[in-house]
Amino acid sequence: DVKVTQSSRYLVKRTGEKVFLECVQDMDHENMFWYRQDPGLGLRLIYFSYDVKMKEKGDIPEGYSVSREKKERFSLILESASTNQTSMYLCASSFEGNTEAFFGQGTRLTVV
Amino acid sequence: EDQVTQSPEALRLQEGESSSLNCSYTVSGLRGLFWYRQDPGKGPEFLFTLYSAGEEKEKERLKATLTKKESFLHITAPKPEDSATYLCAVPSRRYSGNTPLVFGKGTRLSVIA
After folding, report:
1. B98 → closest Cβ in A4, A50, A105
2. Span A99-110, pLDDT tens digits
3. CB B101 within 8 A of CB B2
């Protein structure tokens, strides 16, 4: 079974803090993705990566950065957390090409 | 622009009452359509991939079908445990190379015993 593991299920951070969300996959997938999910807005792509050290901006990259130093790990960084970044964050991975993506369990982040 | 629209937003069924969920898309040159199930507070769980018009996939009480403009998820004799949000997604042409999925907003299904 494919496993995508996110480091935290729930996180509470203060405004202005630097926040790291970690994601690890065990299927040797080339592609990794970060989405956020908000009521009424659905899933929106923040960043993705199709290779180690490669990254591309998604639809809403502002206020975020990413790091992929190893194939199995993809980190999302909130440089200076703000209340409008309170959301459910979902990591996913897939093989290259148009294949299904597998998701982690999600991290519910609250910024106060 | 690639778009995925799902209807209805919410659906309430009695146990055993069959129905269908709709997913329409406007991406040109479809390269796959994906269905997911999402339970509250959890990540989406992959269900099906469809690649060409006329294709069908089945899993237990769920059957997914694909036409040139839309996909249907048919639920036959649903049970309360089928209650979830169902999402469909297509690979977006907005990005180069390997393509992330763009999702519809989902249909929230409630099955009442």
Report:
1. A50
2. 899 999 999 999
3. no
Q: Look at strands B70-75 and B62-66 and give their pairing.
A: antiparallel
Report the alpha-carbon angle A51-A56-A60, nearest 5.
140
Among residues A48, A12, A10, which one has the least CA distance to residue A30? A48
Query: How confident is chain B (113 residues) per 10-residue block, as mean pLDDT?
Result: 91 98 88 95 96 95 95 98 97 76 96 97
Instruction: Tell me the C-alpha to C-alpha distance, in Å, between residue A87 and each of A81, A110, B45.
Output: 11, 7, 19
Q: What amino acid is encoded at B94 in this protein?
A: R
Q: Tokens representing B74? A: 């048919």
CA distance B99 to chain A (A): 7
Structure-block tokens of residue A20:
């790291």
- Residue holding tokens 């799902």? B6
Structural tokens at position B94:
């907005």
Binary contact (B96, A4; C-beta < 8 A): no
